[in-house]
Amino acid sequence: MTTDIGTRDLEAFVTLARISRYTIAAASLGMTQSTLSKRIKELEAKLQVRLFDRTTRHVSLTLEGQEFLHHAAHILDQIERSLRDVRERASGQRGRLSIAAGPHMAGNLLPSVIAEFAAHHPHVEIILHDCRSQETLGFILSEQAEIGVTVSPSDMIEHPQLDFHRVVERNDPLMAVLHKDNSLALQPTVTWDDIRTSRILLLRQSSAASRLVASVVSAQAVRLDLVFEVSLIDTALGMAASGYGIVVLPSYVKSRHRADSLIYRPIQGTSAQFHFSLQHLRGRSLSGPATNFINLLRAHVEAW
Asked: Rounded distance, CA 304 to CA 291, Å?
């Protein structure tokens, strides 16, 4: 029977085959000469093959031993490479990182995080599913994405198969986004009274950003004289860049779109509480790359 041959048996054989002296081979293996001799004899008995011809000074491989050396060395090399690969994956140096994120996270927060992560982990394959916030659930449940980046609590998808890690909590004012030539651009902050009579560009309530704005407006009983709703942030910013109105957004919804013509100003007395979270399958351990990404994301968000 050969099924009980272990890596220690193979290591002993390969070391002796390459050194050809029991004393030196045993010392390099950290065992006594008698222990090495016994292990080699047991290996030959298991294989029912003579592997070495022995003299008083040294040993030499038989023809069968030479053939077995090729296979044994290959097996040990495969084991070492497999162990190294597992360790690198566990530490996050290799593997795959798959992320699902809504448009504001994918377009504003994640690019710089992914770029830095890729620079430090060149052997990790990165996949980003940039999608509507509601679609992150499907990517996680189908295991196309290991983690989903969300804005909680208004954007967090409750599901019995999902857990979440809170990355960081924020309490920031809403922002008024206006054309740089608007007279309000000269002020460091604006008030509801400053913008109330202007055309206010709002996102329709299909995202976390729009729901956060709506909750603040409702809580403060703000009356806006003229509201114009659109579905896409780029549409709202494009209209603001043309001078058609003022966009009201949470502070985390930042964009380089029309950056040459738009100014962001905090709205005094507003407070939108939210936190960035990562969702993943319940009971599923996060991979090494995902763990490293979460740590990096937390550092970026805290400095954002």
From this structure: 20
Class of domain 95-170+274-303: alpha beta
Quick one: which H or E segment has residue 271? none
pLDDT band at 2 (very low <50, low <70, confident <90, very high): very low
Question: SS3 for 299?
Answer: helix
pLDDT digits (tens, 9 = 90+) for 15-45: 999 999 999 999 999 999 999 999 999 999 9
Nearest-angstrom CA–CA distance, 52 and 64: 9
Residue 17: Cβ within 10 Å count:
21
Cβ–Cβ under 8 Å, residues 275 and 165: no
Between β-strands 246-249 and 147-152, what pairing exists: parallel, antiparallel or unpaired? unpaired
Do you know the residue count of the chain?
Answer: 304
* 3-class SS of residue 248: strand
Helix (H), strand (E) at residue 102? none
Q: In terms of CATH architecture, what is 174-270?
A: 3-Layer(aba) Sandwich (3.40)
pLDDT tens-digit map of 265-294: 999 999 888 877 888 999 888 899 999 998
Indicate the fold that domain 7-90 takes in CATH: Arc Repressor Mutant, subunit A (1.10.10)
223 SS3 class: coil
| Model confidence at 1: pLDDT above 60 | no
Provide CB contacts within 8 A for 163, sequence distance 6+. Answer: 279, 280, 281, 282, 283
Tens of pLDDT along 131-179? Answer: 877 788 889 999 999 999 887 654 455 678 888 777 777 888 999 999 9
Same fold, 7-90 and 95-170+274-303: no
Q: Domain spans of the chain? A: 7-90, 95-170+274-303, 174-270
Nearest-angstrom CA–CA distance, 196 and 223? 7
DSSP label of 286 = P
Under 8 Å between Cβ of 92 and 288: yes
